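Check this.
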Amino acid sequence: MIRSTPIQLSTLLSVLVCLLATGRNVAVGDEIKPIRALLVLGGCCHDYNAQKDFLAKGIAERAHVEVVIALDKDTSTAHMNPVYEKADWAEGFDVVIHDECSSDVKDLAIIDRILEPHRQGLPAVLLHCGMHSYRSEGYPKSVTPWFEFTGLQTTGHGRQTPIHVNFMDATNPIRTGLTDWTTVNEELYNNSEGKLLETATALAVGQQEGSKDATVVWTNNYRMKTRVFATTLGHNNATVEDDRYLDLVTRGLLWSCDKLNDQYLRSEAK
């Protein structure tokens, strides 16, 4: 029988205390490998230079996610983000956050290049004007390739006034800990066909004075293969930097990667 000496016990206790103090998982003994997220943004009508930092910092503070920013400084709606120039543009990333505003990029070859990684299973997060991008042939009545990806046909919005966000489906893990709230002046995107696509599931409805209620948060099962999280909220800086918005986007991102769990959520975000 081997007996532990006082020195051996003291050393073991010191190691355990250090592991616990640094937040390491003693059973696994490895650091959590962060999710690599590509944040694509730029184009018309939004303060993307500020919003890129709100999103990257806010997500990283809430979860083990490394955000790489691809900002297109062109402010038109017809310019393709340079990150899409190569066919392997998404290589090395675990999820892509589409926050671009590129309605007049209509070339199907470009759209197919953007969608191909997602068709192969790469998770996605779609924010605000990401829903109003890539309006190819058949828009607005047909389900274009981009509408199929987003899960919602939407064509515009009314004037900016506060939106009351009313969450649905209390069993969905994305909305755990989230509560209804009212935004600052915001754009309520219409649901032009009056409903989501059959592959999509609503998580929250937006109500705005003088406008028809519209789904503002949902998930989409793209081609029965890829998890997509989407919200039309997020026009103004005050919304994008709001803790409630960042909590929602972070949980949606983790869900899309099938990693919405205590391992990937930082302790303060649980």
